[in-house]
């Protein structure tokens, strides 16, 4: 085709990719196929022709005889398929098969991308509140997702319910999985937002997350009935984003339904800039006594969470101001008042 500047641009890759899909990865392509040539332009990236310059299509490289040959990416970069990935060379390009709990990310045409794991597991997590010591935000990154056995992260009804995760460094994030509670009340997750950023979010008193994390990567779509109980919301980004912090906020405005309760929040990607984690990041949000009725009438934690709390914790004290545990002292450090318990 003819561009406005008079350069002739010849695209010769796609048909050749089809023609040579079964050929040996080391065989040169025929007659300059797999090349992108600028006949009278200034593209000098690689190779040359009598009237200009050429470069090879993705997954190919220029051979000494000025033909494009396949790159065996699996041999050239043995780790190209990342976490639990198995590489298969194709001509052109390559393909990754992801094993374990990893997922495919960053694939681009014939270039098969890489496999990435959940980089949120075990990371410091913070929340607007916690319904009990056994339903803190750490339960959303404990790696447990079983519908009946996984402890729940569960907030109070604090009107701004959110969770934030510190990935420990800037990561190239490709995907999220939000494991909604499976015991009941999944509809409470409605109009939620996922945001990412590089500013820490640890204070439970923070309400306007968009000011801290301007990058909205996902907005929960209808149905207006909210998510289903036990639903796993899979959020695959069209383009990876780079960020250290991830937050999920529930904007369910229905009276009594604004809690945020999850089995797990997973973030799939890979760290690109590692940074040390400050000890202060272990602070947790304020904790209130376990409410007696946390599910009926628009309240509280699910069966799994309640069962775990009953097995580990004594009954809530009738004293409205129990002595804080060492952890509770950490959580209330900084003068943040605890949120009111659900009724
Ligand atoms: Ca290849």
UniProtKB/TrEMBL annotation:
Gene3D superfamilies: Galactose-binding domain-like (2.60.120.260), Laminin (2.10.25.10). Keywords: Calcium, Disulfide bond, EGF-like domain, Lectin, Metal-binding. The keyword Repeat does not apply. One of its GO terms (molecular function) is fucose binding. InterPro entries: BG_Antigen-Binding_Lectin, EGF, EGF-like_Ca-bd_dom, EGF-type_Asp/Asn_hydroxyl_site, EGF_Ca-bd_CS, FTP1, Galactose-bd-like_sf. The keyword Protease does not apply. Residues 315-325 have a biased composition (Pro residues). Residues 70-108 form the EGF-like domain. Residues 1-32, 279-343 are annotated as: Disordered. CDD domains: EGF_CA. GO terms for biological process: regulation of cellular defense response; regulation of complement activation, lectin pathway. SUPFAM superfamilies: EGF/Laminin, Galactose-binding domain-like. PANTHER family: F5_8 TYPE C DOMAIN-CONTAINING PROTEIN, FTP DOMAIN-CONTAINING PROTEIN. Homotrimer. Acts as a defensive agent. Recognizes blood group fucosylated oligosaccharides including A, B, H and Lewis B-type antigens. Does not recognize Lewis A antigen and has low affinity for monovalent haptens. This is EGF-like domain-containing protein. It comes from Chlamydomonas incerta. The lineage of its organism: Eukaryota, Viridiplantae, Chlorophyta, core chlorophytes, Chlorophyceae.
